Amino acid sequence: MESIQVGDFRFLLDLSKPLYEQVLQHIRHAIARGDVQLGTKLPSVRDLAQQLKLNPNTVMRAYQELERNRLTETRRGQGTFITSDSETVNQVKKALASEAVIAFVSAMEKLGIDRSTAESLLKEVAWHE
Fold it and tell me: Which CATH topology does 3-84 take?
């Protein structure tokens, strides 16, 4: 896996997983983290596909999903832009956080770790603030 920087985005693609989902996740997480300013223009489908060495249909599918989630908007003749709606971004950030918590709880349950032990483990972990 090689890391590829495209504009404000850094992609690390794993060829063993669906590529459109990875492109979607990289962009979604970058927006949620605030790595990219609201209203920023995304690279064109063709440009991003060329730089990532992907089929343009793969990138188009990711862009369509971003638009369905209201994280982007396509302006005819101008391109695709990240939403300017901070509330939408906050909702997506909360949803991503919920997914991470659910995955954590599931992993703890599979290890046979109860809630209080898991909470103690969380308190011991250093947060990067």
Answer: Arc Repressor Mutant, subunit A (1.10.10)
Q: How far apart are the first and last CA of the chain?
A: 27
User: Is pLDDT at 14 greater than 90 in this prediction?
Assistant: no
pTM for this entry: 0.81
Residues 48 and 35: their CA atoms lie apart, in Å, by: 17
Helices (H) and strands (E) in the chain, counts: 5, 4
Contact 71, 83 (CB under 8 A): yes
How far apart are alpha carbons 39 and 44 in whole angstroms? 15
Cα–Cα distances (Å) from 64 to 17, 19, 102, 126, in that order, read 19, 14, 26, 37
Phi and psi at 114, nearest 5°, equal: -80, 170
Q: Is 36:47 a contact under the CB 8 Å cutoff? A: no
Distances (CA, A) of 49 to 25, 60, 92, 111, 121: 15, 9, 25, 40, 41
